[in-house]
């Protein structure tokens, strides 16, 4: 079957691309309003929501960037996985029921809608939407770059497309993404999430076995090879060191409650009480699927160091190279298709919340009524296409001009969301003393710090993550500013939800 590896992989990817068109067309028939486009009519079942929540986290960031980060830094990034699992629990504890009740109470179709209701502040709505839009650029660029990287790896093994460039793959990926997202909105995203989440749980276990068998001697041999080259890489903290790794732990554990693509999905389930069933399924699915992240990264590093595999063209190629050379052709085809599904559905989720910020939240915050409710669906689709093109341009710039790894680009988006939204949403929706002014100060400070670190390429001492530093500052300012003034007024219905 080995001679048929490339045709099998291409067939699986081709079937998936075709399924995207079918899902997009099906979802378009179910999308009749902006509410359907942005929050799926708040009518999703437990399994759909649970698989969509974990799938949207472990997307191109985890399946392409994750192995690349393990390949580069050793054990450091494994703390992201541990922290993200804790982040799920915190997110559901702080927001699982409350955010769904806010959505029901005020008919919210976006996270900034709920923020505006909580703080009685259009300024808070505007800044929340702005933070989401800026974070979307980083995270969405991650998805597009990851999808193009995987597609290039597959196509260059054919005679016809052996010289295809990354730019051409970005263009092709973006074209499919735009159709899929514009047609189906969030409905297309969540149902694809459900399918690919189930596939990736099974595939991750099979990849783990294949990764262990790829190196003679299994796990002990892998550890010995890596340790012989760089003992730090095989240690629990990896090459990043203790402080740097713990900063990731901080931003990924607490920051999970500030990820709008996850929090927004908590607004979509059919019943409020479903949250307690969604959480364990999401954590289990994420934990099992993350085995792919760890196993591929460590195995490819050991294979390259031992001379069993040529030097990789880049760390982000680790997953694609492993699947092309060391996985059974059928398994490689399924995982490649699953990778595209993970990336595509998560990219759709980011396009969705970005479009909501552009055509729903920012105009409302500025008091504009230019977009009539019956025209919001049309303009949501236009904004989705424009946002996708802008993110593709940013992805190419980040890759060629800034040499950013997929995972580091994703970490920037995660950190931006965490620092801006954890104080405002995760803390503010549970603490009555939190004020609109404090929320605005927290968001502005986080954006200034994150953008300054990114634009000026600042490096913090001891490898401390920039998102962790900005989250610490925004939380401190949020509490200080809230305590400086009197308790803010809260609408009775909002207060009743906070008392639950």
Relevant terms:
mainly alpha, globular, about 0% strand, about 75% helix, about 500 residues, Sodium/glucose cotransporter
Give the ordered list of helices and strands. HHHHHHHHHHHHHHHHHHHHH
Report the mean per-residue pLDDT as an integer.
82
Low-confidence stretches: none
Q: How many domains comprise the coordinates? A: 1
Shape: globular
Q: What's the level 1 CATH class? A: Mainly Alpha
**How much helicity do the residues have?**
over 70%
Distance between the termini: 59 Å
Strand content is under 5%
CATH superfamily caption? Sodium/glucose cotransporter
How large, in whole angstroms, is the Cα Rg? 22 Å
Structural class: mainly alpha
CATH topology: Sodium/glucose cotransporter
Second CATH tier, the architecture = Up-down Bundle
Number of helices: 21
> How many β-strand stretches?
0
Sum this structure up briefly.
The protein has a single domain (2-403), classed as Sodium/glucose cotransporter (Up-down Bundle). It is 76% helix and 0% strand.
Reconstruct the topology from this structure.
Layout (H helix, E strand, L loop, with lengths): L4 H26 L3 H6 L6 H12 L2 H14 L4 H18 L2 H9 L4 H9 L2 H34 L10 H48 L4 H12 L1 H4 L7 H12 L6 H4 L11 H31 L12 H8 L3 H37 L10 H25 L5 H22 L8 H20 L10 H19 L7 H8 L1
Helix pairs in contact: 1-9, 1-16, 3-9, 3-14, 4-8, 4-14, 4-16, 4-18, 5-12, 5-14, 6-7, 6-21, 7-8, 8-9, 8-15, 8-16, 8-17, 8-18, 8-19, 9-14, 9-16, 9-17, 10-14, 12-20, 14-15, 16-17, 18-19, 18-20, 19-20
């Amino acid at each position: 079957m080995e001679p048929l590896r490339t045709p099998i992989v291409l067939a699986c990817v081709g079937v998936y691309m075709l399924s995207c068109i079918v899902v997009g067309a099906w979802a378009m028939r179910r999308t009749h309003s902006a509410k359907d486009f942005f929050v799926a009519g708040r009518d999703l079942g437990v399994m759909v929501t649970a698989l969509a929540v974990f799938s949207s986290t472990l997307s191109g960031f985890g399946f392409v960037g994750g192995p690349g980060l393990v390949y580069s830094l050793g054990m450091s990034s494994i703390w992201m996985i541990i922290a993200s699992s804790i982040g799920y629990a915190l997110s559901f504890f702080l927001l699982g029921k409350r955010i769904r009740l806010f959505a029901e109470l005020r008919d919210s179709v976006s996270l900034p809608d709920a923020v505006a209701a909580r703080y009685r502040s259009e300024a808070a709505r505007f800044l929340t939407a702005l933070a989401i839009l800026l974070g979307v650029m980083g995270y969405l660029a991650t998805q597009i770059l990851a999808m193009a990287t995987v597609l290039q790896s597959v196509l260059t093994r054919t005679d016809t497309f052996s010289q295809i460039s990354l730019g051409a793959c970005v263009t092709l990926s973006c074209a499919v993404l735009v159709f899929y997202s514009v047609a189906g909105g969030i409905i297309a995203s969540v149902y694809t999430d459900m399918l690919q989440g189930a596939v990736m749980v099974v595939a991750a276990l099979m990849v783990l076995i294949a990764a262990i068998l790829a190196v003679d001697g299994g796990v002990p041999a892998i550890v010995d090879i890596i340790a012989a080259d760089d003992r730090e890489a095989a240690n629990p903290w990896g090459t990043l060191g203790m402080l740097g790794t713990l900063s990731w732990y901080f931003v990924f554990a607490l920051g999970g409650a500030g990820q709008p693509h996850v929090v927004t999905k908590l607004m979509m389930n059919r019943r409020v009480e479903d949250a307690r069933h969604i959480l364990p399924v999401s954590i289990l699915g994420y934990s099992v699927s993350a085995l792919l992240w760890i196993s591929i990264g460590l195995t490819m590093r050991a294979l390259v160091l031992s001379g069993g595999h040529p030097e990789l063209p880049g760390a982000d190629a680790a997953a694609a190279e492993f699947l092309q050379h060391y996985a059974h052709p059928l398994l490689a085809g399924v995982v490649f298709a699953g990778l595209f599904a993970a990336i595509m559905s998560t990219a759709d989720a980011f396009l969705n919340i970005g479009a909501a910020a552009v055509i729903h939240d920012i105009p409302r915050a500025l008091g504009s009524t230019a977009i009539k409710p019956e025209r919001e669906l049309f303009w949501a689709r236009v904004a989705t296409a424009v946002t996708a093109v802008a993110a593709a341009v940013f992805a190419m710039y980040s890759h060629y001009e800034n040499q950013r790894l997929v995972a580091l680009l994703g970490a920037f988006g995660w950190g931006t969301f965490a620092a801006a939204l954890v104080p405002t949403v995760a803390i503010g929706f549970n603490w009555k003393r939190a004020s609109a002014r404090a929320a605005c100060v927290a968001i502005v400070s986080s954006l200034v710090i994150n953008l300054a670190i990114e634009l000026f390429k600042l490096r913090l001492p001891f490898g401390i993550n920039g998102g962790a530093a900005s989250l610490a500052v925004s939380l401190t300012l949020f509490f200080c500013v809230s305590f400086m003034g009197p308790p803010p007024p809260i609408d009775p219905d909002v207060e009743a939800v906070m008392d639950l």
